[in-house]
Amino acid sequence: MTSAELKLNVEKALDEIRPFLQSDGGDITLISIDNESSVKVRLEGACVGCSVNQMTLKSGVEMTIKKYAPQIQEVINIEA
């Protein structure tokens, strides 16, 4: 898989999870993919400072990204 395909797959994963975040007044943006194994995202809106955002990140976002791009090892939230 090329890095362009990897980015496309990660974006597909974010598109799948975005409606759930937006329904709670939040959103998510892809910041970068490092070494084709680590994804950096920014949780936005109501997701910032939300007490469950780490759980959302690990169980929802990371799981969905790994479904589309199994080589991803971790997802990191970069705070604004």
Description of the structure:
The mean pLDDT is 89. The chain has a single domain, classed as GMP Synthetase, Chain A, domain 3. Helix 1 packs antiparallel against helix 2. The protein is an alpha+beta fold and 80 residues long. It is globular. The chain has two helices and three strands; from the N terminus they run H-E-E-H-E. A three-stranded mixed beta sheet has the order 1-2-3, with helices on one face.
CATH topology: GMP Synthetase, Chain A, domain 3
What would the average pLDDT be, to the nearest integer? 89
Number of E-state strands: 3
CATH superfamily: Fe-S cluster assembly (FSCA)
Domain NIF system FeS cluster assembly NifU C-terminal: 10-76
GO molecular function: iron ion binding; iron-sulfur cluster binding
Protein name: NIF system FeS cluster assembly NifU C-terminal domain-containing protein
Organism: marine sediment metagenome
Outline the secondary-structure elements.
Layout lengths: L2 H21 L2 E9 L3 E8 L7 H16 L5 E4 L3
Parallel strand pairs: 2-3
Antiparallel strand pairs: 1-2
What's a quick, concise take on this entry?
The chain has 80 residues and is α+β, with helices and mostly antiparallel strands. The chain is 46% helix and 26% strand.
Give the key terms.
single chain, GMP Synthetase, Chain A, domain 3, iron ion binding, 26% strand, 80 residues, 2 helices, alpha+beta, 46% helix, NIF system FeS cluster assembly NifU C-terminal domain-containing protein, NIF_FeS_clus_asmbl_NifU_C, 3-stranded mixed beta sheet
